[in-house]
Amino acid sequence: MSEYPMRGRPPIPWEDRYIPEPNSGCWLWTGGWMSDGYGRTSDGKKAHRWAYEINVSKIPKGMLVCHRCDTRSCVNPAHLFLGTHADNSRDMVRKGRSLRGTKNPRAKLSPGDVIEIRNSEHSSYALAQVFGVSSRTIESARSGETWPDVTDSRDPDLPDGWQAPDTDEGF
Ligand SMILES: [Zn+2]
Questions:
Q1: In sequence order, which residues have a C-beta less than 8 Å from that of residue 28 and are 6 or more positions away?
Q2: Rounded to the nearest whole angstrom, what is the distance from the C-alpha of residue 72 to the centroid of ligand 1?
Q3: Domain-wise residue ranges, the chain
Q4: Cα(46) to centroid(ligand 1), Å
Q5: C-alpha span between 34 and 47 (Å, rounded)
């Protein structure tokens, strides 16, 4: 029961931590909240990530848990899916919430983008659309021709899947 730090209170059962919303099918978190609108567990995890881990599977290192329903407080495992930062960015582009993209001719990659690109299985063309740069820029970043000093420096001591995301956008 390591998910439940015992501080003199009995743990709240999973079923009592959300309210089903009949129209959307969302399960709305009833616990604490993060400032960005995500549910928060008593030990400070994002509730939707926790919901995914206990109901679906462990979250692979570096992966995000995204919402199909776009409701940040939702913890219905059926509404959650694993994605990369690139997937999440593409999702935001599709929803028109991204500030970058091909409309911005000066768009450049950040070190976090470069790590994401190198870890991604998507084509250079697809990533170029997501990050708003040319395919050539993606290929150069991937090969190490550009950004040779960027390495994935995530803390290996963090539990799988719980490291802080690189940006505050979305998820
Ligand atoms: Zn939902």
A1: 18, 19, 20, 21, 71, 73, 74, 75
A2: 8
A3: 14-94, 101-143
A4: 15
A5: 9
Q: Which residue is associated with the tokens 């993060």? A: 34
Polymer length in residues for the chain: 171
Predicted confidence (pLDDT) per residue in 61-88, tens digit: 888 999 989 899 999 999 998 888 777 7
**Cβ-contact 14, 52 below 8 angstroms:** no
Q: Is the pTM of this model over 0.85?
A: no
Q: Select from 15, 77, 83, 16 the least CA-distant residue to 52.
A: 77
For residue 77, report the distance from its CA to the centre of ligand 1, in Å: 8
Interatomic CA distance for residues 108 and 101, integer angstroms: 10
